[in-house]
Amino acid sequence: TTLIIRIRLTHASGYFPREQVTSNAFTPTSALTW
């Protein structure tokens, strides 16, 4: 999914440090909220 790729990109960029929790929960909606 493109959402997962976007989450991975944000995580790689280090834009969202708390994104790690979102990735663990696997919630694309949370990534959009962040």
Task: Describe it.
- The protein is mostly helical.
- The protein has one domain.
- It is 74% helix and 0% strand.
- The chain contains three helices and no strands.
- The longest helix has 12 residues, at 2-13.
- It is globular and about 20 Å long.
- It starts with a helix and ends with a helix.
Please sum up the structure shown.
The chain is mostly helical. The chain has helices at residues 2-13, 19-25, 28-33. It has one domain.
Number of strands: 0
Overall number of domains: 1
Unreliable stretches covering 5 or more consecutive residues: none
Q: Would you tell me the structural class of the helices and strands?
A: mainly alpha
Mean pLDDT, rounded to whole units?
A: 55
| Number of H- or I-type helical stretches | 3
Strand proportion: under 5%
Largest sheet: none
Tell me the Rg in angstroms. Answer: 8 Å
Helix content: over 70%
Q: What is the overall silhouette? A: globular
The separation of the N and C termini measures 18 Å
Q: What is the string of helix and strand elements?
A: HHH
Entry keywords:
34 residues; mainly alpha; 3 helices; 74% helix; 0% strand; globular
Question: How are the SSEs placed, and which strands pair?
Answer:
Elements: H1 2-13, H2 19-25, H3 28-33
